Amino acid sequence: MSAHSCAPRLDSGAESMASASGIQNSDKVQHSTFLPVEEFVRDHLTPQPKYWGARRSRWRKKTQRIEEATGAEYKMYSPICELLNAISKSTYEKYRNKNVELPYNNPIVFLDHHSVPSAHCDIGFKPVPDIVGVFASKEEIDSYTSIRNVYSDVPSYHIATFCEGKPKTISGADQAMRYTCQLLELRPDMPGVYGLCVNTKNYNIVWSDSSGPVTSAPIEWDDLKPLEAYIRSLYVPPKGHHLWDPTITSPTLLPLTECPDKKLKVHWNIKTEEREYKDCVRIHVGDGWGRRSTVFMHDDSSGNFAVIKDSFRDDRRRYEEASLLKHIHNEGTFPGVVRLIASGDVAGRDGSPIETARPYVKKEVDHRTKKRIVLGSRGCQLGAAKSMRDVLMAVYDGNEVLRALVNERDYLHRDVSMYNFLMYPEHAKNTLSAKGFYKNRPLFINDILKLDSKNEDRCCALFIDADNSALLEPFADVNEELAARTGTPRYIARAVASGQLITKLRMAKVYHTMPELEAKAKELYLKNYGQDTYDAYIDVAANIYHGSKFQEPSNAPPSFSHRPDHDVESLFWVLVFCVILALPLDADEELTQDFVDAWTVMETHAIVSDKTVDPRTYFLTIEKAGWEQMVHPKLSSLAGMMIKLADQIAPEYGYLNPPPKRDHLHEAFRRILLEQILDMEDNPIPLTPNVFRHPPPTPDGQDPVPRLKPTASNATGKESTSRKRKAEDSAKTERKSKSVKSTSVHSARYIND
Q: Where is this region: Disordered (predicted)?
């Protein structure tokens, strides 16, 4: 069997389509933009104190060995270390002699580390800079493995800076910038980092934080003043440059006992105003540039838990995740939504909020402030489902939660995806509001079917990650916010992906009436929701669809805005992906070409700037036989339901006049899903948890199509570490991802704004 684990892919994503930062993903940086040396030194390095004397003549002799190291690159490493260590030792002693408070009790030491990656990189990738600068004691350095002064096994959480060497006059600035991004991802306790790149002719200094990197122009070796300032800045950063987060401390290595290989995991202590959370495990790492969301899990000895999420929020954004969660839960705990325990800014060593160093520059530089929220909910992605009926029950409840949020709290999630729509929710102790549950909470499928539930709120679904959410308010700037495109490519609504109403498809103007129920489904509906609710959505007149008429647009179609039905469409794409990839229990994969084609469409979908037809339209046009070929044969009974849902999703409801009720599509989904859930009462179709069907690899062991990274805020779920496939395939097909391997965790992918 060659199925892939469907545990969440926790690699970082590209920047959001709604972002104006222009900062690229660390994998995509192509070229450096240099600042003039004088400007870089002035804005990003610590000036020399007046009481310091110059020793550059002695250090200048050390640079000659670097300039003479032509040919093999490795010949540069030893003289570079000698030079940097000489300046570092002198800098440390001068600061100590003046009783300047320093972050560590040891000088920073530069080590040749070019041959192996750093150790304990618990986020998947392992960078290999040529030289690493560590704040470590002599005993710690002696514990590193070294052969002829070339070190290995240096813990990633000891690395405070690095140097990349290049032979002759080759520039290493681009590579150095990528390393600064990776160092930000490795070190959650470092809001910003410095890096260095050198060749035989000159050197560049890099500053990097969540607003992106900035690099000095090349500096000739006969000018060592900037190099001295770089070393000074590692000890005493210049104003506005935060190198350390004092609230994240004491990294230690402890066994991750849930993992079968018993690998060590870095544990962190995190302080909030209310308390300290000890031995937190990092379960998600976002891009170093952008929102840079980092999520930790804290489990205590009593069985309780907390999820701590740090992120750098763009100061221009109208909405903040914590304030939106407070709004949702203000009148009582709202079922199906992640619960907020605490929130606030994160303060630096001087007590001021940790912010990015550079001021905002339109379309070039964001200014960001570090925020922290503590959450009391976690759950599993749909891939962990024990049965397909469980999936549909979670989708039913998710639809009801979205509907109630719109009707009761005027709230749009705007990024419903596999990553942040969860099932099997769990809530921490003592997180229920003093007001109890929200008084108008919706009826969930457990209520309809009179089933037991382990959760007081009786909800099978959980929505997390409100980073991209918005409120439906009658303000101009909110309308502008709702006109922005944001979402995860695979799941984003078609109109949102294109930034305009759907215009190029005939099906966009082919509407279907509200579904009607029969037999037991109708009986249960009327019993729980009432005849008035049922009748309010029935289309009784000709050419009436969801209570409205189609109106052919004039020359210009109505303007685009994110609507409640767009979130329902995203929920549909989540279900499509899950149904197509689901693997029934004890079954072979049964891969067909229709499956491979469907997988390719979903996996390669992107948010693009042109107005081409969305390739996912494929799923809205195929007939029953097509669905039966795409899904596993044991799931072919779902084909009828998927066609009914697709018929409701396909039209562009922006052309209806007057606009239909804002929960009209939720109502259609409620009816179709209820009918299917009842039909599966005797056959829930057991699934293989945490395993998805997956096309076979290419001959060279790669995925059949390139994987695209999501572009918007993502998820939280329990991740399985298993990756089941045939033994002979496993070594070839392990997917490379910047992920945090963990079990039973509230994980997340929160990425750029």
A: 1-25, 685-753
Residue type, 80: I
117 contacts 126 by C-beta, under 8 angstroms: yes
Domain-embedded: residue 247:
no
Residue recorded with tokens 């929505």: 463
The amino acid sitting at 76 is: M
pLDDT in tens, 494-514: 999 888 888 767 666 788 889
- CA-only gyration radius of the chain, Å: 28
| pLDDT confidence of residue 105 | 85
DSSP state string for 601-614:
HHHT----SS-PPP
**Domain end position, chosen among 695, 716, 744:** 695
Amino acid occupying residue 661? K
CATH number of residue 223's parent domain = 3.90.1570
Handedness of CA 548, 552, 558, 560 (dihedral sign): positive
Per-residue tokens: 171: 């520039």
Of 705, 475, 491, nearest to 597 (Cα)?
Answer: 705
Give the number of other Cβ atoms within 10 Å of residue 723's Cβ: 17
The beta-strand segments (E) located in 383-433 are 411-412, 421-427
In the block, residue with structure tokens 């003549």: 57
Cβ of 500: how many Cβ atoms within 10 Å? 17
How many domains are there within the chain? Answer: 2
Average confidence (pLDDT) over 322-347: 97
Yes or no: say if 715 and 420 are a contact pair by the CB < 8 Å rule: yes
| Domain contains 729 | no
Contact criterion met (CB below 8 Å) for 551 and 669: no
Residues in a beta bridge with 343: 373
Average pLDDT over residues 27-39: 71
Buried b (16+ CB within 10 A) or exposed e, 434-463: eeebbeebbebbbbbeeeeeebebbbbbbb
pLDDT in tens, 641-667: 999 999 999 998 888 888 889 999 999
Determine the 3-state secondary structure of 517 from DSSP: coil
> Distance between CA atoms of 197 and 205, rounded to whole angstroms?
7
**How many Cβ atoms sit within 10 Å of the Cβ of residue 696?**
15
Query: Under 8 Å CB-to-CB from 272, ≥6 apart: which residues?
Result: 247, 308, 342, 344, 372, 374
Domain boundary residue, one of 669, 695, 721 = 695
Which of 9, 237, 249, 262 minimizes the C-alpha distance to 123? Answer: 9
Are 534 and 508 in contact, with CB atoms under 8 Å apart?
no
Q: Which helix (DSSP H) or strand (DSSP E) does residue 146 occupy? A: strand 145-147
Torsion angle defined by CA atoms of residues 646, 647, 650 and 651, in that order, rounded to the nearest 10 degrees: -160
Provide the domain limits for residue 479.
Answer: 382-425+432-695
> Average of pLDDT values for 31-46?
89
| Six token digits for residue 274 | 């209310």
Query: What residues contact 524, with CB distance under 8 A and at least 6 apart?
Result: 448, 449, 674, 678
Cα–Cα dist 70/93, whole Å: 33
Task: Please name the residue that has the structure tokens 């290989």.
Answer: 261
The full 3-state SS of 154-220, as one line of letters, equals CEHHHEEEEEEECCCCCCCHHHHHHHHHHHHHHCCCCCEEEEEEECCCEEEEEEEECCEEEEECCEE
